[in-house]
Structure formats: structure tokens, C-alpha cells
């Protein structure tokens, strides 16, 4: 049985297909796509972060998700459906079906943030960012003619800046609550932990990796970030799960990371989009805004 995906995947991840002895007929049995759907390779295989145990993730841009085949489990949402399509000799194949109309609405919301006459921050959550990441940075295996513009509008760079701005605001808010001294010990520990994670997320996004949860946060901090963030990550890891998770070294490291983030906003023109979004919140000067791009 022929597979519309096999040859495309063989050009981008032949080592994965070989490792699991995947053949055209194996993939054909898992395909549940319409003729006008666009198909992208996404997830860790597309980002270059795959390990020997990573799944194979596909994203399908469609008018509506298809009916599931018998026995297929998944996670429906307003975006469509996410299913575990099957397993090929130990390789788990996941398929995200993204509705075009919802993806287009997310792109519209993101486009309104920090435009030439706006310093707005788009209120995007994990699902929205997940959709933007998959559509905007996936490897195209099949592109429907009408989806070319939509994929181009999934602006991952702007999504990163937007996520960095929101995470910084959340981190600073939690840090201020901790420093206020009005919290009980458990609440203080939780808010400090949240502050540290948000500040790390802010920096990783400012450096170029769209990260909206903690799944890949530690590895990306260690790969991309500078000393202040490595110290914060180490302090957070050392305090994790302990009753001393609100100890002074975590607080001091979070303060230091926040100050470094603000200093870099003022000095680094590559962060101009982030600073435009944050300027009304943190009262930054506008000297680099005209270099935003």
C-alpha cells in the first residue's frame, strides 16, 4: 500500500525510519488526511532536539479534524484534535489536527501585538503558542495552495517576543509578592518557584527558542542562557521539593536574573520587539524601538 508521507519523511528523517524499520505500508495504515490538508513534521524531530526515544509528531492543517479511527485515543480541543495515531515498531506517531479558521484567528491576535502603532501584548496561552510553533516552524511535507499564506503568518519570532514579555511580567509580579513579606511560608515558596520559572522562560524566548512550559526549559537554559540564568536554574533545582525552597539563594538569583534581563533589554537591539511590548510596563526608554524590524 502506497504512503503519501513516506518519501517526504525519508528526505528529512531517514535515520528515524531506518532505526524503527518503518516501511511505506506502515505509514499508510496511519494516514487519515484529506486531499486539501497540509502536513508538517513538527515536535522534537523538526526542531533538532530528538533523542533515541522521541515520538514522531505530525501536524495537519485542515478545515476540520476527521473522525477518529476505531481504537485511536486523543485530546480534542477548540483547535481540532490531537491523537496518538499508532505505533510503528516502538515509534509512537502523534498527529495534531489544526483547524484553519482557529489558526488564522490566533495569527490575527498575534499580529496585533507591538505593531507600528501598538504596544499590546497578545493574550496567548499554551495551546495557541503550540499551534503557532507547529505551523510556523514545522517542516512542510505537503502544503495545500491555500495554506501557504497562513503558514507564513504564523510568526514564531513575534510569538517568542510576546511570550518573553508575558513571562517577564509574571515573573516580576511573583517576585514582588515574595518580597512583600505578606505571604505564608508555603505560598511564598510557591510564588518564588513560579517567579524563577517565568524569568527563565522569558530569557529563553528572548534568546530565540519558543518555550511556553517547563518541558524543555532546563535543557534550553543550559544551552542558550548566560551565567545569571544558570545560577538561577541551579538554585531552583537544588531547592526543588525541599522545605527550604524559599531560601535566600533562590531569591537572590531571581533578583539578579531579572536585573540582567532588564539590562539586556536596554542594550541589545535584537530584543527591541520584546522591549516595545514591555516599555509601558517597565518604563524603558525608546531609543532602540526604531530598530525593531
Give the tags.
293 residues; Beta Polymerase, domain 2; globular
Could you explain how this protein is built, in words?
The chain is of the alpha+beta class. It folds into two domains: 151 residues, Beta Polymerase, domain 2 (2-Layer Sandwich), CATH 3.30.460; 136 residues. It has a six-stranded mixed sheet with strand order 3-4-5-2-1-6, with helices on both faces. It is globular and about 60 Å long.
State mean pLDDT (0 to 100 scale).
Answer: 90
Q: For the terminal residues, how far apart are their CA atoms?
A: 49 Å
Proportion of residues in extended strands: 5-15%
Helix content: 40-55%
Strands of the largest sheet, in order across it?
3-4-5-2-1-6
Report the structural category.
alpha+beta
Estimate nothing, just give the exact number of structural domains: 2
Query: Tally the helices: what do you get?
Result: 13
Shape: globular
Q: What characterizes the major β-sheet?
A: 6 strands, mixed
Radius of gyration, taken over Cα atoms and rounded to an integer in Å: 21 Å
Amino acid at each position: 500500500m502506497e504512503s503519501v508521507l513516506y518519501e517526504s519523511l525519508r528526505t528529512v528523517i531517514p535515520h528515524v525510519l531506518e532505526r524503527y524499520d518503518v516501511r511505506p505500508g506502515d505509514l499508510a495504515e496511519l494516514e487519515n488526511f484529506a486531499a486539501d490538508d497540509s502536513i508538517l513534521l513538527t515536535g522534537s524531530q523538526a526542531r533538532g532536539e530528538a533523542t533515541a526515544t522521541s515520538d514522531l509528531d505530525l501536524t495537519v492543517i485542515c478545515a476540520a479534524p476527521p473522525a477518529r479511527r476505531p481504537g485511536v485515543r486523543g485530546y480534542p480541543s477548540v483547535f481540532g484534535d490531537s491523537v496518538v495515531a499508532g505505533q510503528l515498531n516502538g515509534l509512537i506517531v502523534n498527529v495534531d489536527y489544526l483547524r484553519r479558521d482557529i489558526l488564522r484567528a490566533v495569527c490575527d491576535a498575534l499580529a496585533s501585538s507591538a505593531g507600528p502603532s501598538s504596544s499590546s501584548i497578545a493574550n496567548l496561552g499554551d495551546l495557541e503558542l503550540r499551534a503557532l510553533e507547529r505551523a510556523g516552524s514545522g517542516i512542510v511535507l505537503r502544503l495545500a495552495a491555500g495554506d501557504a499564506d497562513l503558514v507564513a503568518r504564523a510568526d514564531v519570532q513575534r510569538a517568542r517576543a510576546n511570550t518573553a514579555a508575558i513571562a517577564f511580567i509574571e515573573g516580576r509580579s511573583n517576585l514582588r509578592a515574595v518580597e512583600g513579606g505578606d505571604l505564608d511560608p508555603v505560598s511564598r515558596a510557591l510564588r518564588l518557584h513560579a517567579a524563577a520559572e517565568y524569568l527563565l522562560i522569558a530569557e529563553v524566548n528572548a534568546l530565540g527558542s519558543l518555550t511556553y512550559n517547563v518541558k524543555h526549559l532546563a535543557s534550553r537554559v543550559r544551552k542558550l542562557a548566560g551565567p545569571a540564568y544558570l545560577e538561577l536554574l541551579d538554585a531552583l533545582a537544588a531547592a526543588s521539593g525541599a522545605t527550604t525552597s524559599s531560601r535566600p539563594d533562590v531569591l537572590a538569583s531571581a533578583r539578579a536574573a531579572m536585573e540582567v534581563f532588564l539590562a539586556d533589554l536596554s542594550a541589545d537591539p535584537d530584543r527591541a520587539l520584546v522591549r516595545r511590548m514591555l516599555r509601558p510596563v517597565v518604563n524603558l526608554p525608546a531609543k532602540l524601538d526604531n530598530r525593531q524590524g
